[in-house]
Amino acid sequence: MKILAPVNKAEEVEEIIREGANELYCGVLPRDWRDRYTNIASPNRREWTSANLSDFDEAEKVVGIAHTHGIPVYLTMNAFYTEAQYSLVLQQIKQAKSIGVDAFIVGDLGLLLALKEKGLDIEIHISNTGTTFNSETVRFYKDLGASRIIFPRELMIGEIAELVEENGDIKFEVFILNSGCKNIDGFCTFHHGVNEILHPFLWNFFKKLNFDRHLLELIRRLPYNLSSRMKSNISGIDSACLLNYNISLISDKLPQKEASFICKAISRSFNLLSGADPCGVCDLYRLKKIGINSVKIVGRNYLTSKKVKDVRFLKKILLYLEQSPHISEEEFKAKVKAEYKNTYKMYCNNLCYRFS
């Protein structure tokens, strides 16, 4: 399995590759796009300038450094676009292709059709925003020219195994670390990045310091019965999916006790802990047997030190798995949990991406 790692500046590329990344991905949020559509309508679903390369000159530097080491670079173009945006999106793709970007991560059906219609010779990876939940969708995307599909976070291991087995002629990728979300990206219409417009200087200062990640990491260290009740109304995090919603059922067909239980359970799920970084490294034991091509570390906006730590941790576990062909799954999970604590100085607390 290959490690796909994020970058948001040319200066960190060398170190991330040195730690074991086999592939890199990035986003570009140019000034002309922000002036026309604001950062909220980012072309790659990372609405903070700190998560993106500032222009294609910097992207060219990233590609040049990576290619020196034989490492491919993928560009995220995985937002959903309006008709008016397509000309600029296609212009960015052509520009990225001219500087040597190796593949494009896409989720918009209209863009996929436009790329096929224009016959652009590019490699296409379907984003998790493409919501691939069944084999019909896999075949649909393959017909549109996709060579790789990134599974949504919400698929369980058994479902992933079934899809890979039924579609052996295409590559698959899964998320492995960071950025959990209860919502399905391809169906989500929540907006992020608002605070960067309302409070640009202050917000960018704290964003570059990774204040939000440090806050979530602190919350993750708290006892579950406390962390699961913390709402974002008091935190300033601009993620609408973490707000403290009032939940009610429209239907009156359920018994009052059952309805109350459902509403309470949903309401409690809207908390800051649901935005904390999950882990799927224990799943590598089965993902390797299934035949997953790449595992993707999320977190383009994270500090270089965090990215390096994630790659180092993942590389160490993959190497251990490679060198221990007869280890049991239980022994492997024990190794992962121990190494997780050693790397991140906290217990994983079973905050997992997916289940069997």
How large is the count of helical segments?
Answer: 15
Beta-strand residue fraction: 5-15%
> Separation of termini?
20 Å
* Second CATH tier, the architecture of the largest domain: Alpha-Beta Barrel
Biggest beta sheet summary = 8 strands, parallel, barrel
What is the highest CATH level, the class of the largest domain? Alpha Beta
Instruction: Please indicate the count of domains.
Output: 2
Task: Give the overall silhouette.
Answer: globular
**E-strand count:** 8
Stretches with pLDDT under 50, minimum 5 residues: none
Strand order of the largest sheet: 1-2-3-4-5-6-7-8
User: What is the helical fraction, as a range of percent?
Assistant: 40-55%
Can you walk through the features of this model?
The protein is built from 15 helices and eight strands. It has 356 residues and is of the alpha/beta class. The protein has two domains: 2-180 and 277-344, Copper homeostasis (CutC) domain (TIM Barrel, Alpha-Beta Barrel), CATH 3.20.20; 194-273, no CATH class. It starts with a strand and ends in a 12-residue tail after the last helix.
SSE order and pairing:
Blueprint: E1 2-6, H1 13-18, E2 23-26, H2 31-37, H3 56-68, E3 73-77, H4 86-98, E4 103-106, H5 109-118, E5 124-126, H6 135-143, E6 146-150, H7 157-166, E7 171-177, H8 194-198, H9 200-208, H10 211-221, H11 224-227, H12 256-269, H13 284-290, E8 294-297, H14 304-323, H15 329-344
Helix pairs in contact: 14-15
Briefly characterize the structure.
The chain is of the alpha/beta class and 356 residues long. The protein has helices at residues 13-18, 31-37, 56-68, 86-98, 109-118, 135-143, 157-166, 194-198, 200-208, 211-221, 224-227, 256-269, 284-290, 304-323, 329-344, and strands at residues 2-6, 23-26, 73-77, 103-106, 124-126, 146-150, 171-177, 294-297.
